[in-house]
Amino acid sequence: MRSAQQGRETDAMNANLHALIESHFPSGTEQPCLLIPNEGVVHYDELAQASARIANALVRAGCVPGDRVAVQTDKHWQVLALYLACLRAGLVYLPLNTAYQKRELEYFFRDAEPRVIVCRPGSVGMIETIGNGALVLTVDGRGGELWDRARDESTTFVTVDSKPDDLAAILYTSGTTGRSKGASLTHRNLASNALALVEAWAFTRRDVLLHALPIYHVHGLFVAVHCALLSGARMLWLPRFDAEEIVDLLPQATVMMGVPTFYTRLLAQPSLTRDASRHVRLFVSGSAPLLPETFAAFRERTGHTILERYGMTETGMITSNPIEGVRAPGTVGRPLPGVNVRVVDDAGDECSPGTIGSVQVRGPNVFAGYWRLPDKTREEFTADGWFRTGDVGEWVPDGPAEGYLRLVGRAKDLIISGGLNVYPKEIEERIDALPGVAESAVIGVPDPDFGEAVTAAVVPKPGATVDEAQVIAALRGDIASFKVPKHVYAIDELPRNAMGKVQKNVLRQRFARNPDKG
Ligand code: MLC
Ligand code: AMP
Fold this sequence. Notes:
Largest sheet: 9 strands, mixed
Bound molecules: malonyl-coenzyme A, adenosine monophosphate
Radius of gyration: 23 Å
């Protein structure tokens, strides 16, 4: 229990994540932060000044703490400055995948009611029609309208005093019901997880992080960026993942983070060798299961043992294999410092090691709830305050990885493709609305590149026919392209159990082993 004195001290500290980040910025102005191939270097002081200017511009535009700033842009360095600006101004950062289409964006804007929307120049017209009166600003390689407003603002900005439970970001995750939910993340959530990761993965100012992930999801935005900023490290800042370019740049890096698809694509490059990766001290994989074959092939080729960790938008990072000690393939390691994990049976009792159950999480990393969905939030927590991840796993009972978590599946109907989540329900609803379709079921089948490939089994209405190319064409432009099925099979009827529930396992087996179109 903390004393009254301790309580006063803690309460007096500014819990704004930016205050923490600022306190770790390297002293002296010359430390590079972003190394951007073919563009140049952005130093820490330049980043700090840019974020101050943007924060001032946003305040001048009428933003007050708690307002949402939605962002759908390419990965320009100014967008990192915008993220920091939102933190320090107490605004709630709402990043959006660039693949999201009008219909998806419309929902996010209606739900989150952003005061400002920052987008690519080519989207302004469309976004203004669905932005509910938000101020729409562009960002491009030269800075765009956001930068036009910020350029002449002051290079200082006093970071807003935030409470630990104040919102810092909202990240939308789809749901099994087909409806997206905004995961509300607080300054405490982000700060506690960032500090745990810097410690767990031994980040220092000497590190150079190869950053090729998008910055609209937890992995690229929070995990990667926070580790670098909280240790004063440098980032090799790449607009997107290109395996050939990554291998060329590896000799300059000490750490790389990626989804499993990054590793399978790197392995397809003959130029990936021990020599190319000799300066790297750490390769991290997460967001989707890393196949033991990929783990083994990577070790064989480079001599490096990939560190696999496990996380979720609602919780940040949960467990990690160790920096020192055994990194076991097919496991996601132990809980991070301060994070509690339990595996429980249907009655809610803890499973003994080696027994499979539901994975639940508690700790300062666990989000504040779904934006404006108190009932949905309550459903996802147990009566004693644990968050239900929807993942299924067990504690490894013995051997070198004893006590590590092993994930064996998911209770939620979810496909993870190239590290991006696709909820079948959402795709089924879109397919069912197409003319000539009676019903559909969407599944993930094993895919060598994406891990799982979104696949649809479609039952035509009597007398109608279903054509793969037509279904795919109809969905493009309606939903993000990574959600569009890679394969569409017409079938006579969906397999159902006695309760009438579609047996997706039957479909998975059928289309994984024998992808005939009958
Ligand atoms: C792109 N495409 C995908 C896809 N990404 N299809 C399925 N799954 C994906 N993930 C499709 C596009 O729609 C397009 O289709 C074609 O591939 C080429 O698009 P691209 O943009 O050029 O693709 P590429 O650059 O090769 O991207 C693949 C990728 C990328 C794997 C590099 O998806 C990626 O960076 N993924 C990482 C996502 C991530 O950050 N996840 C973390 C979530 S946080 P077409 O038909 O139009 O040609 C989280 C929590 C945690 O999960 O624990 O970390
Ligand atoms: P998201 O909702 O996009 O944050 O995705 C979170 C989900 O990704 C988790 O609930 C897991 O199902 C999955 N996930 C993340 N990391 C791993 C991992 N290392 N192995 C298996 N699944 C993972």
